[in-house]
Each structure stands twice: as structure tokens, then as C-alpha cells.
Design brief:
Length: about 300
């Protein structure tokens, strides 16, 4: 991008938006705003109040580098190292999957069902988040449901460090245990009984990997996305391991890929442990979550 020495913040924004549009970046205008506010360390209020100020010439090289990264396909969340989820700020790096809005629906269902089931019993549940990544599910539940005990599990030590940081940022560190290990194995080895188990595991079929958007394929961790030949490997493994826990969780909730809900529901149904298997659609009408619920 050509550097213009004398310009206002508004002019830098317009130039950047046009540059990103030409590079084929979706939501180029909002992306330019996010990157510019990140560079200037401005809130959105400051953005509206101060964008007629001169652009800082000393930041020009850094600004061009940020734009080049996004134009090359790097997700803006990795560039600014932040993503909002369920109204909370989360640190993200390329070591973890970027939290998606559809996962918020799984958190909502968990809160609704959990409060209904355990409030009636005057009991506070223990909830496991398997493959926690950024800690989005566990941290959001801890923030919304004080007193619930959360266990966040991930095989990646890097991911766990990020999840711990996000728990600290949102003031819920004392409510969450962090365990390193493969799926349910840390719970099984310690004989931990959980009342609710949630997971957004890797579910993309291997053959679909190359066809993904460049932002996903080239930048997000493949280990957090690909779930074997048909995308169902991790569901099979988790459901198989459920039998090794001290008891089956009263609620099991999964996020699933497009077209997978029926298969995952059948895998859960085969265990004959829950009275109801429900499928929840996302805002686009896609069957996005499968939830098994025992009778309260």
C-alpha cells in the first residue's frame, strides 16, 4: 500500500478500506476500522470523536504491515489478538480456534438447561468443557453461573495457557480447573464425575479441508478443525469414553458441522442413557448443536 505522509485518521481509514476491498477481504470497511482502532489503541467512542485528527506518521510502517497481513488472508482476530464471545473479551492466537457466534447458542442452552435441572435440586453442577481452546465455553459459563464448577480440558498446552489467561481477564479463574490431556482421559484417570459435558470438537471432514476459506485453511490450527474422514472421529471417541466416567453426565452437548446432527444424535441414542436427544438450529437454520438430556 502506498504511504501518504499527511492525512487524517478518516483518510487513512478510507484508503485502507479500499485497499482491503481490492484484496477481496470480506467486511473490508469494518476490518479497516478494527485494525485502525487496534493500532491507535482507541475505543469506538474515541474513533467517532477523533477521526479528523492527523494520522501519526511514525505509525505508518506498522499500519501498512497490519493491512498487508489482513490482505494476505490472516484473520483480523489473530492480528489484533482479540475476539468477543458471549459479551466477553477473549485473547486469541494462532494456537487456538477463533470462537464463533454459533457456539454462543450452545452456551445459552447449557445455561438454560443447567439452571432448570439443578436449581430445582438446589445443587450446583460440575461442567466439563472438552477441547476448550480459548476457554470460550468454560469462561462464559463461569461468568454467567457463579458457583458452577468448571473443568476445561485440552490436549494443547498452548491452548490451556490462553484459556487460563482468558479466565484471568474475565475474573473467573477460581471457578475453573484446567486439565491437560486427550478428550476425557484426565477426567477418567482421576475418577471425576461431571454433571454436564460440553464440546465443540474438530468436525470438518478431511476431504473438505482444501476447500475451506483461506482465512481458515491457511491460518487456523488444523488439529482444532479436522475430525477424520467423515468429521465424526472425535464424537465417537468422546461418547465411547463416557462409559469410563464414574457416571454418565445428565447433559451432554455437542456443536456439530452441517449435516452431522443426525449421525451424532444416533451415536448418543445408542448409549440409552438420556430421555431426550434434541437438535438446536443456529440463526441460519442449520442444525448446529446436539444435546442429550436425562430426566431431572
Amino acid at each position: 500500500m502506498t504511504i501518504q505522509i499527511e492525512r487524517t485518521i478518516r483518510e487513512a481509514y478510507v484508503q485502507a478500506s479500499s485497499f482491503l476491498a481490492q484484496a477481496g477481504v470480506p467486511d473490508h470497511a469494518f476490518t479497516a476500522e478494527l485494525l485502525l482502532r487496534h493500532l491507535l489503541k482507541w475505543t469506538r467512542s474515541e474513533w467517532f470523536m477523533r477521526w479528523d485528527e492527523p494520522f501519526p506518521v511514525e505509525s505508518a510502517a506498522q499500519w501498512d504491515a497490519l493491512l498487508a497481513r489482513r490482505a494476505a488472508g490472516e484473520p483480523v482476530q489473530y492480528i489484533i489478538e482479540e475476539q468477543e464471545f458471549y459479551g466477553l473479551p477473549f485473547t486469541v492466537t494462532s494456537a487456538v480456534l477463533i470462537p464463533r457466534p454459533e457456539t454462543e447458542l450452545l452456551v445459552e442452552e447449557a445455561i438454560r438447561l443447567g439452571r432448570k435441572l439443578w436449581d430445582e435440586q438446589e445443587k450446583l453442577p460440575t461442567v466439563a468443557d472438552i477441547g476448550t481452546g480459548t476457554g470460550a465455553i468454560a469462561v462464559s459459563l463461569a461468568a454467567q453461573c457463579p458457583g458452577w464448577s468448571l473443568i476445561a480440558v485440552d490436549i494443547s498446552e498452548q491452548a490451556l495457557q490462553i484459556a487460563k489467561r482468558n479466565a484471568e481477564i474475565n475474573g473467573v479463574s477460581e471457578s475453573i480447573q484446567f486439565r491437560a490431556g486427550d478428550l476425557l482421559k484426565p477426567l477418567i484417570s482421576d475418577g471425576i464425575a461431571v454433571d454436564m459435558l460440553l464440546s465443540n470438537p474438530p468436525y470438518i471432514p478431511a476431504e473438505e479441508w482444501q476447500g475451506l476459506q483461506r482465512e481458515v485453511r491457511d491460518y487456523e490450527p488444523i488439529t482444532a478443525l479436522v475430525g477424520g474422514a467423515d468429521g465424526l472421529d472425535f464424537y465417537r471417541a468422546i461418547i465411547e469414553q463416557l462409559a469410563e466416567l464414574p457416571q454418565y453426565p445428565a447433559i451432554v452437548g455437542f456443536e456439530v458441522g452441517m449435516g452431522q446432527a443426525g449421525d451424532v444424535a444416533q451415536l448418543l441414542q445408542s448409549r440409552k442413557q438420556w430421555e431426550e436427544i434434541r437438535i438446536v438450529r443456529d440463526l441460519a437454520g442449520i442444525e448446529r448443536h446436539v444435546i442429550a438430556v436425562a430426566q431431572g
